Amino acid sequence: MPFVNIRIVKEVIASDPAGKKAAIAAKVTEAIKEATGLGDSDVWVVFEEVQARDWYLGPTNVETLRGR
């Protein structure tokens, strides 16, 4: 059973978290189904939301990078 863990910057989906997660999960699930022949209920998708200030690219967090 495939398990997909998606970490995403919380602010990216802030305008519609449930809708955006559902859309992402549907597309990821479909891609795995096409590649493996598994069914919907065989693919697990989990989201972890991370604040932009807690996600770093090297020494700089995303919040700072977006402020530039």
Automatic annotation (TrEMBL):
Keywords: Isomerase
Matches recorded under InterPro entries: 4-OT-like_dom, Tautomerase/MIF_sf
Keyword Isomerase: yes
Highest taxon above the source species: Bacteria
GO MF annotations in UniProt: isomerase activity
Family annotation (SUPFAM superfamilies): Tautomerase/MIF (SSF55331)
All copies of domain 4-oxalocrotonate tautomerase-like, residue ranges: 2-63
Name the UniProt record assigns to this protein: Tautomerase family protein
UniProt source species: Kaistia nematophila
